[in-house]
Write a structure and sequence with these properties.
heterotrimer; A mainly alpha (451); B alpha+beta (271); C mainly alpha (164); A: 451 residues; Cytochrome Bc1 Complex, Chain C; B: alpha+beta; Rieske Iron-sulfur Protein; five-stranded antiparallel β-sheet; four-stranded antiparallel β-sheet
């Protein structure tokens, strides 16, 4: 029956030519190559659950009195945004489930992107001809983080509202343009209620559209350039060895999509996330502790906490304190991330095309720099939860902060040095005796070892 | 064996789907709906993955081919058709005109926001304005014990984000007022801006035995007895102090606005 | 308490109820101090209590009354075992670094409201599932990485292995 449909389609569009070529596309088999798909499928879950949420959420900061079923807030004045989120959570069938799936999916989406980025980085998959795809990937990470921040700020609750206040101050700290940019972005001086509908437009329209467009280019490039592969029997720079798209890879991939969805659904059903009814509606003169952003902003939060209280003041002008951890640090971070393939090519003088991946230990410099950078951000993440650590483990938050200021400076070079040692010892270790193996070619053209 | 596992997966999925429909219609709990939906999805997923194993023939190799297009003298490509001096100058002026248009089209952005200048420098506090609490009630001497704290606003502007302030009562003998501010704190009542000078969070924690205000966001700590000077954390400047006095009937009123812009810094704050 | 500056820890009392009453009567005879408040949560307004809690208490004790860090090792403790009378007593006497809220700030009706709200926080379940300590994005991030991405990574390895 499928054949008949295919034939009818082909008579009208010539689709068989495309489909036959597509079906034969080969995808190498390694579990770490599936990380990008995990991110993609999390994004699909975000889109599906997100659409459902848009039917109920009202992006408006105008006040309204709550009369829903959560009695602890009965009669309280709150914004329509907060009220609609409460109504969705308590008075819409499966509303809380969908909302929680959506939020867990966002956290896992960005975690998957970061894991995928690490795989690409440590195996050198960003080298020519894939520099463009790396740049696109970093852009997707940035877009994901922005959309996550915009998304969890929509309910206008006390926790996310505090985060918006901090974001306003960071924007305001930019030299020359700061106050104007902050007022421009938020729609006026703080607190600007305009920000809620603006974030909504950003969150459901602009950024998802950008993500879909940029993702499509990302995937098209993979199809065009074909996937990279690890060196191994029968694998060269001129071929790609693995599973054909149809039917095996497509079935596997669809299975992965369903398993990712199942995991996100299970999280949404079992674990409470972002209980805004406990935080209460946002009031600029209220605050709760502990106050953290969602995990992917934790490195920024940590930088804000442990950076010393330095400000630059000269000739009546100043560069405020939050500029350094809040603007300069992420600027440099993403600047280096975006530029990395070109930086590495220039530093190593390697402008060749590479389709075979590196073992991380074969590249001690890249691996040790990458691990040092990772440890730097890990310390910042820990710094972002310094008050939670202090209160859980009965420590002085002041002592924890001072300790982290020292750790952020000494841990990365230490990790880098140790990683370099291990990598160089691994790659120049005792010479491996070549094993006797017979390589057999199957009828389909693939290679496997024949014992 | 594998076939049986596939069938079982699909049956489990179908059963879970039926259960989900029932749970949904009968308004069963969140966990039940979540787990049933997860099983329904995972059942099909597992079946698909197991079935995928039975398909196809092991590994296949596909040649990569050259990525770059082979050069062809007959069709020179997009860059070539735009070369040549007359074409270049046209393209140059074309780009210039488009650039000017793009800059002009940016001007509606100005209506997205007002200039924040005066909002950053002035709050609603002024001479003679009484202090009120979060419910709008005026504050009188005797409102706080020593070691007490309340969030206060200018009368008529309850809840105002930039004017929000903290009224504290400390032992007047232990106060070390800044020069010229000896009359700003009647009977130990002292008022500071509640907006943290680091990143703008409300400085909500008062540790009265330490005479410290602690901001929960990034742990900036201010010494209340010494003009809210920062003693720990990333805040670079003290919290601005509001001059207050008590009227003849004991009401606390402001003597003027804060002497400097409140909250986090910006590039021309000192000018 | 051996060190009055240290963080007090809730533990079983070494005194009987009569002994405690006797100590209280003795200390009260030494000078002025707030009376033990009369707290009745059955007449407390739950929603108003929540508003008062968020305005006055959440900054130190957390929006979910889970407690929070103060400076130099001190903690605003979690309130999950506080009885209504203990809540009222703490509000009126400001133990340790806690500020004092007297009658003009929070009258006895408002103390009933706050105590009712805190008691509800103690007894109410979490509508969304496991509450993760109601701490917020920190445990949520850990769960997303360890349980979320972690399970998915296990699944991807199983998928790859099963297709060999």
């Amino acid at each position: 029956m499928l054949r008949e449909v295919g034939a009818k389609l082909d008579e009208r569009t010539g689709s068989n030519r495309f489909l036959q070529a597509a079906m034969k596309k080969v995808f190498p088999d390694h579990w770490s190559f599936l990380l990008g798909e995990v991110a993609l499928y999390s994004f699909v879950v975000l889109l599906a659950t997100g659409v459902y949420l848009t039917f109920f959420f009202v992006p408006d900061a105008e006040p309204i009195t709550y009369t829903g079923s959560y009695v602890a807030l009965d009669g309280i004045t709150m914004s329509r945004a907060f009220e609609s989120t409460l109504r969705l959570s308590f008075d819409v069938r499966a509303g809380l489930l969908i909302r929680q799936i959506h939020h867990w999916a966002a956290l896992v989406f960005i975690a998957a992107i970061v894991a995928h980025l690490m795989r690409i980085f440590f195996t050198g998959a960003f080298r020519k001809p894939r520099e463009i795809n790396w740049v696109i990937g970093v852009a997707l990470l940035l877009l994901g983080i922005v959309n996550g921040f915009a998304g969890y700020s929509l309910p206008d609750d006390l926790l996310s509202g505090t985060g918006l206040r901090i974001a306003y101050s960071i924007a305001q700290s930019i030299p020359l343009l700061g106050p104007w940019l902050a007022s421009l972005g938020f729609g006026g001086p703080y607190p600007a209620p305009e920000i809620i509908p603006r974030l909504y437009t950003l969150h459901i329209l602009l950024v998802p559209a950008l993500i879909v467009a940029v993702l499509s280019v990302h995937l098209a490039l993979i199809v065009r350039q074909k996937h990279t592969q690890f060196p191994g029997p029968g694998r060269t720079e001129e071929n790609v060895v693995g599973t054909p798209l149809w039917p095996r890879f497509a079935a596997k991939s669809t299975g992965l999509f369903l398993m990712v969805s199942a995991t996100l659904v299970a999280l949404g059903g079992l674990f409470q996330i972002n209980p805004i009814w406990l935080y209460g509606p946002y009031h600029p003169s209220q605050v709760s502790a502990p106050a953290q952003p969602d995990w992917y902003m934790g490195w920024l939060e940590g930088a804000l906490r442990i950076f010393p209280n330095w400000e630059i003041r000269a000739f009546g002008f100043e560069i405020p304190n939050v500029f350094f951890p809040g603007v300069l640090l992420p600027g440099i971070t993403f600047g280096i991330l975006f530029a990395w393939p070109f930086l590495e090519a220039r530093l190593t003088g390697d402008h060749q095309i590479h389709h075979l991946l590196d073992e991380p230990s074969a590249r001690p410099w890249r691996t040790s720099i990458g691990l040092a950078a990772l440890s730097f951000f890990m310390v910042l993440f820990i710094a972002g939860s310094n008050d939670v650590i202090a209160s859980r483990f009965q420590l002085s938050v002041n002592a924890v902060t001072y300790t982290l200021r020292v750790l952020v400076l000494i841990v990365p070079p230490l990790v880098g040095a140790v990683a370099y040692r291990i990598a160089t010892e691994r790659s120049s270790g005792p010479p491996r005796r070549p094993t006797e193996e017979t390589i057999v070619r199957s009828e389909g053209g693939g290679f496997h070892t024949h014992d | 064996m594998r076939d049986r596992a596939i069938i079982i997966s699909l049956l489990a999925s179908a059963a879970a789907s039926v259960g989900l429909a029932i749970a949904f219609l009968a308004e069963g709990g969140l966990a039940a709906q979540g787990i049933l939906l997860a099983i329904a999805l995972a059942g099909i997923g597992t079946a698909l993955v197991m079935w995928a194993h039975t398909l196809g023939e092991g590994e296949v190799a596909e040649p990569r081919g050259e990525l770059a297009t082979p050069t062809d003298p007959e069709s020179p490509g997009p860059g070539a058709t735009l070369s040549g001096p007359s074409r270049r100058s046209f393209v140059g002026s074309l780009l210039g005109a488009i650039g000017a248009l793009a800059v002009a089209l940016l001007s509606p952005i100005k209506s997205l926001g007002r200039s924040p200048e005066s909002a950053l420098r002035h709050t609603k506090w002024a001479a003679g304005i009484p202090l009120v609490d979060a419910d709008g009630h005026r504050i009188f001497l005797g409102a706080l014990e020593i070691g007490g704290v309340a969030t206060v606003f200018p009368e008529g502007y309850t809840g105002d984000a930039v004017s929000q302030a903290l009224l504290l009562r400390v032992d007047p003998k232990r106060l070390q007022p800044l020069p010229g501010r000896e009359d700003w704190s009647p009977d130990g009542y002292i008022v500071f801006s509640k907006v943290c000078t680091h990143a703008g969070c409300p400085v909500g924690l008062f540790e009265n035995t330490r005479d410290q205000l602690l901001c929960p966001c990034h742990q900036s700590t201010f010494n209340v007895l010494a003009g809210a000077k920062p003693v720990f954390g990333p805040a670079p400047r003290p919290l601005p102090q509001l001059p207050i006095t008590a009227t003849t009937d004991g009401a606390l009123v402001a003597l003027g606005d804060f002497p400097e812009p409140i909250g986090p810094g910006f590039w021309n704050r000192d000018t | 308490m051996a060190d009055p500056g240290a963080q007090p820890v809730r533990k079983p009392s070494p005194f009987t109820s009569d002994e405690i009453d006797a100590i209280v009567a003795y200390v009260a005879s030494l000078g002025a101090g707030p009376d033990i408040p009369n707290v009745d949560i059955t007449i407390g307004d739950l929603a108003r209590g929540g508003e008062l809690f968020r305005t006055n208490c959440a900054a130190c004790h957390g929006a979910a009354a889970g407690g929070g860090a103060l400076s130099y090792g001190r903690n605003a403790p979690e309130l999950y075992q506080a009885s209504p009378i203990e809540i009222g007593e703490a509000i009126r006497s400001g133990p340790g670094p806690m500020p004092i809220f007297d009658d003009t700030q929070l009258n006895s009706g408002e103390i009933n409201d706050v105590a009712r709200y805190v008691t509800a926080l103690q007894t109410d379940g979490d509508p969304g599932g496991f509450g993760l300590g109601r701490i917020g994005p920190v445990p949520e991030g850990l769960v997303a990485w360890i349980l979320g991405l972690g399970s998915i990574l296990v699944i991807t390895r199983l998928i790859e292995r099963s297709s060999r």
